[in-house]
Amino acid sequence: MNIVALPLLIPFALAISLLLFRSPTIGRWVGPLGSFAIFIVSLYLFSNLQTNGILTLNMGGWDAPFGIVLVIDYLSALMLVVSSLILVVVSLFALRFLTDDIPLNRFYFFFFTLAMGMNGAFITGDVFNLYVWFEVMLISSFVLITMGKKKEQLEGGIKYLALNLIGSFLFLAGLGLLYGKTGTLNMAHLAEILRNDNQAVLMNTSGILFFVAFGIKAAIFPLYFWLPASYHTPNITITTLFAGLLTKVGVYTFIRFFTLFFVQDQPFWHNLLLITAGFTMVIGGMAAASYYETRRILSYHIISQIGYMIMGLGIFTPLAIAGAVFFTLHNMIAKTGAFVASGMIAKIKGTYQLKEIGGLYKDNPLLAVLFIIPAFALAGIPPLSGFFAKFMLIKAGFENGNYIITAVALLTGILTLYSMIKIWNEAFLKKQPDNQAGKVDVKLAWPDYLPLTILATASVLMGIFAASVFSYTMEAANQLIEPSHYINSVLKNKMP
Amino acid sequence: MLSILVGVLYTAGVYMLLRRSILKFIIGIIFMSNATNLLVFISAGLVAGKPAFVNGATTNVSQLADPMPQALVLTAIVIGLGMAVFILALKYKYFEVTGTDDLDQLKQTDSQK
Amino acid sequence: MNSIILQIASKYVRWLLVIFSVIILLRGHNAPGGGFIGGLLAGLSLAYKGFAFTPELLKTEMKVKPESFMGLGLMLIFISVWPGVFIKSAFMEGIWFTIPFPFTEGYKFGTPFLFDIGVFFTVIGVTVLFLFSLSNNKSWK
Question: Helix A236-260 vs helix A318-349: angle between axes, to the nearest 10 degrees?
Answer without folding.
Answer: 170
